[in-house]
Amino acid sequence: MEKIKELYETYKVYVTRENIERLSLGIIVLSALWVFLSSIPFRGVLTLDKGAIRYDGSIVRGKMNGQGTVTFENGDTYKGNFVNGTFSGHGTFTAKAGWKYEGEFVNGQPEGQGTLTTEQNVVYKGTFKQGIYQNAN
């Protein structure tokens, strides 16, 4: 306790309202800068799930945002747009098994107009909803 009293006595001359206000203003300015700068996209590489997933592309606040490519451990790839870490917008998912979907994605699923090409080169072109082809007769 004596050490704390001694420390206070040494530095009490600096503990003024004006200095506390300056410190508070400095903290506010630094916080605002951090929020602003962290929302600027940058190009980088993320490795997820202990290396099973590798992302190379635009990153905002530590998440996949914008254009990029994901490569999965099993050899599947997705190249296209991301929003908050999920496939959203136009992209191409290519499975190592040989099939491919190119078109619109919403929340990680084919949604909207797209083309699915199977391993046997059968082509399904049209509307997809929640990953399911809608133009079947």
Automatic annotation (TrEMBL):
Annotated TM spans: 23-46
Lineage top rank: taxon: Bacteria
InterPro entries: MORN, UCP034300_MORN_rpt-cont
Signal peptide stretch: none
UniProt keyword terms in alphabetical order: Membrane, Repeat, Transmembrane, Transmembrane helix
Protein name from the UniProt record: MORN repeat protein
